[in-house]
Every structure is written in C-alpha cells, then in structure tokens.
Amino acid sequence: MIHSNRKKNDGMSFAELVTELKRMRVQMRYFREIQKESELLDAEYHHIVRLQKKGELTLFEVPDVS
Q1: 16-34, pLDDT tens digit by residue?
Q2: Whole-number Å distance between alpha carbons of 60 and 18
Q3: What is the tally of structural domains in the chain?
Q4: Rounded CA separation 45/8 (Å)
C-alpha cells in the first residue's frame, strides 16, 4: 500500500495485527500472574530474613523416617 507521503507500507495487515495483539494480551496476562507470584515470594523471603535477624525464627530438625 502506498500512503500519501509516497512511502510503501510493508507492515502487517489488519487481521495480522489483531492476531498479534491477542497473542500479546495472553502473554501479558501470564506475565502479570508471574509478577504477582514473584512479588509474593520476595515479600515472604524478606519477612523470613527479618524474623531470623530478630531471632524469632528457629530452625528445626527433620525427623529421620527410616
């Protein structure tokens, strides 16, 4: 397609663009879920480290099951 500025447009068709946007939307949803999980794990990690520094968290022995 040639636009009014006489340059050729070799971009995507409308259907290709819509398909690509749908694919990106799915990727963004998965990214948000992963990001939330990552933030939760970070918060839990820092909470555990804070408890360890205060001495409020003690390690325990794992019983031998044999």
Answers
A1: 999 999 999 999 999 999 9
A2: 55
A3: 1
A4: 54
